[in-house]
Amino acid sequence: MAENNRSASNDELGKNDESGKRESTDFIREIIREHNRSGRFGGRVHTRFPPEPNGYLHIGHAKSICLNYGIAAEFGGKFNLRMDDTNPEKEEQEYVDAIIDDVRWLGARWTGMRDDDPRAGVIWASDYFQQMYDWAVELIRKGLAFVCDLTAEQVREFRGTLTEPGRESPYRNRSVEENLDLFERMRRGEFPDGSRTLRAKIDMNSPNLNLRDPVMYRIVHATHHNTGDKWCIYPMYDWAHGLEDSIEGITHSICTLEFENHRPLYDWFIDAINQGRTDDGSGPWGKKIHHPQQIEFARLNLTYTVMSKRKLLELVKGGHVRGWDDPRMPTISGLRRRGVPPEAIRNFCATIGVAKVEGVVEIQLLEHHIREHLNRTAPRVMAVMKPLKVVIDNYPQGQVEYLDAVNNPEDPSAGTRQVPFSREIYIEEDDFREDPPKKYYRLSPGAEVRLRWGYLIRCVGVEKDPATGQVVQLHCTYDPATRGGNAPDGRKVKGTIHWVSAAHAVRAEARLYDHLFTKPDPDDVPPGGDFKDFLNPNSLQVVECLVEPSMLGAEAGTRVQFERVGYFSVDRDSTPQRPVFNRTVTLKDSWAKVEKALAAG
Ligand code: ATP
Ligand code: MG
Fold it and tell me: Rounded CA gap, 34 and 40, in Å?
């Protein structure tokens, strides 16, 4: 595991369950502390999360949010939520709304955020289009940018390779006047898509390909979700991103490792604008603009899933999942719908920390944090997944009594509830064995078992289907002196099983999820293959189950533990008569095993 650079706490975002008192020590926080010591940004810390609204956020984005917001909170700084909406072709309103929702749900608080207006404080990169345009004109005037008529393919061709230098565009030496005129006309919409670009004049021999006269603007006649048809030229990421950061006064522009090679360009663009500018604004071009520090960290990769938005979109479009918020998706909305608490995601992110080397994190570690949080917070209820009917022969017909059940043994403040008990109940098929193996402490002919919160019962008869030989019903007797689960004579009964009263049980749908892919690294595809070849055909199993009546009408999003079965949450597909549950995680924590295996190398 490469991501072992632990960061301990980010208290604010945090209220992290695991946030210790020790100071975080990752390399990014070290850099920031160094800047604070040297006074580089006057002690200011201002971070941002800049998603492109071209898809839903996934858990990788959660890592970035936790990091950026966590740092701002820890250093008493600010945190911006900015839509990097510079590409009208792929961006949609639906994504904008989902992103805002997800960041809020995760618990980050951005500058200007308000609870009565979801969009309050959200920043739109597209609001800076005019300012970016003006700076581009300035670069043209300084002789640092030119309009190029090469096609996209030619630009690629002229660019050279890692081993071959590039060739200069024949349009590189256009006069400033001609460039100004053409750029203005590009903007006015005189030219078709792709016919011209604005490029920075840097160095076609640079060993860094990003510096070989990169494109700053391209022509795209497309309606933008925010600016409508006002613009038909759109800034490229490298040109736009640093300017967005600069305008907002971002101090530390934290991004993923693939941008390391872009950092010289990030700096070049800001330096180019600052050329001829001075601190007091006395120069010919006015006052210097703010120059943030870009810092790169390793993106999060998780086993048994894919994380690229392009691939996630493919799964949605292809109907391989039931939408972006399908509980099998690694999206924040999918995890939320599955029943994952935001605290678990934050704790997970705090545990993996940040590193400078890419690695893959085991999905079991995320599951471990989910269990860990739910164990402390999720009320227990009883639900039977594979029902087997039990008739308690000596229990009075028609009688119902209500038993006290503890909601959460881990949390006394969660209180108790009343569970109905009657003559006919259902237990789990697996909790009965006609021919029990050694150390089987559940129900078998003649054996006694404890009903959770109820009585001790003894199996006195087994009814079978004469045709198939399958057990269809059991007969038991109960010991009226054992209400609550203990025998007054002190006899030992090891096994405790869960149950529901047949007359009171609520029929429900349970959706049992497994990993979306059968392979730890579905991105690793053999030649001619496709990542979708590794989709797990059994990632969703829908079963009918019986739950105790307290779950009737439970609100969507309610998280519970079905005792001895797993953690579940109420899905929004539920109706008042019929709840639908998503299995969030099973009870079994396989993480310990994984950890052991990892330790063993
Ligand atoms: P994808 O590659 O999945 O399409 P992206 O990087 O294009 O993602 P953006 O919307 O540009 O998505 O990302 C917003 C921010 O989230 C960026 O700062 C990006 O570096 C960060 N980010 C994206 N994916 C991850 C990840 N897997 N781990 C950590 N941070 C990530
Ligand atoms: Mg991106």
Answer: 9
The answer to whether the CB of 300 falls within 8 A of the CB of 361 is: yes
* Res 129 pLDDT > 90: yes
Residue of the CA atom closest to atom 23 of ligand 1: 61
| 596 belongs to the catalytic site | no
Q: Is 463 a known active-site residue?
A: no
Task: Compute the distance from residue 52 Cα to the ligand 2 centre, in Å.
Answer: 6
Strand ranges in 310-455 using DSSP code E only, listed in sequence order: 380-381, 383-384, 387-392, 401-406, 416-421, 424-428, 448-451
Q: Distance, CA 502 to ligand 1 centroid (Å)?
A: 50
- Pair 357, 2: CB distance under 8 Å: yes
Q: How far is CA 360 from CA 60, 87, 515, in A?
A: 11, 30, 16
In terms of Cα–Cα distance, which of 237, 234, 327, 398 is closest to 583? 327
How far does the centroid of ligand 1 lie from the alpha carbon of residue 60, in Å?
Answer: 7
Query: How many CA atoms does the CB half-sphere of 167 hold within 13 Å?
Result: 9
pLDDT single digits (tens) 447-471: 999 999 999 999 999 999 999 999 9
* Identified catalytic residue from 309, 450, 511, 564: 309
pTM (global) more than 0.90: yes
Buried/exposed 484-513: b ≥16 CB within 10 Å, e otherwise: eeeeeeeeebeebbbbbbbebbbebbbbbb
The CA distance from 50 to 253, in Å, is 10
CA distance 438 to 428: 19
What type of residue sits at position 385?
A: M
Mean pLDDT (the chain, rounded): 94
Say which ligand is closest to the CA of 81.
Answer: 1
Ligand 1 binding residues, C-beta < 6 A: 50-52, 60-61, 63-64, 255-256, 299-300, 307-309
Of 3, 48, 61, best ligand 1 pocket probe by most atoms within 8 Å of the beta carbon: 61
* Annotated catalytic residue 299: yes
Q: What ligand 1 atom has the least distance to the C-alpha of 299? A: 28
3 state SS of 364: helix
The closest ligand to the CA of 52 turns out to be 1
Give the H or E element holding residue 496.
Answer: strand 496-497
Q: Please report the pLDDT score of residue 601 as a whole number.
A: 62
